[in-house]
Amino acid sequence: xxxxxxxWFAREGLLLxxxxxxxxxxxxxxxxxxxxxxxxxxxxxxxxxxxxxxxVLFGYPESCLDMMNIDDFHQFVYEWFEQxxxxxxxxxxxCNKQLDxxxxxPWDAVFVTTEMYCWLLVHxxxxxxxxxxxxxxxPFEVTSHPPEFFDMHVS
Length: 155
Ligand SMILES: [Zn+2]
Hints:
This protein is an alpha+beta fold. The chain contains 4 helices and 6 strands.
């Protein structure tokens, strides 16, 4: 992840910190702090977590992060999700059914802030079960892969 995006998340207070003491090696009493930026879930499956796409690498202007607030960022992620769903990659986090862009869109992209910072897709009807399915997830144990590329150049 580019430092610019990392700093943007820091500015918005969206970085999680995990303090790890290297207990196995007592001769080095160093403390490691690992940082986790928000992630994206195409489904609840382990292999479907993605690093957050960087607007600049997806076609937004070079200086866009300076001007973006959190709502703009939600909008960017939402548009990325729309492309992912159109490509058949998105599933409801709760019921795991594949989502589509049909005429009456029954799903929403939500940003969860309990247990971890993560954008995910969920049916409106499934939302009430979301907390149950997030419970006990540790963001530092989630391996996220690079996000699929979609050209999101704003013309
Ligand atoms: Zn569902």
